[in-house]
Amino acid sequence: MGAWRDLEAGKAVDASGELISTDVDWPIDGVIDLANKLAESDDVERCITRQWFRFATGRNETAEDACSNAALDTTFVESGGDVRVLIRDLVASDSF
Questions:
Q1: pLDDT confidence tier of residue 4, bands split at 50, 70 and 90
Q2: First to last CA, the chain
């Protein structure tokens, strides 16, 4: 139920793994390590802008949205990942 546990069915929990097929491929050990790696990912930044776009517009992006989405990606990164900037720029975009 989301609570921390050291054992599962009497066996030690192994929280290690490896990110593969990403822009931050690397072994990880635990949720904090995973969060730190994902925070460094350009793929995650693009995913965030796409998901906000889809939520705000109620549709998937099309080829006609490419310029708007490229601008959203750029300003989101330049803002240091500030979601308030992303929302502002999203509602001001031609696609919105």
A1: confident
A2: 38
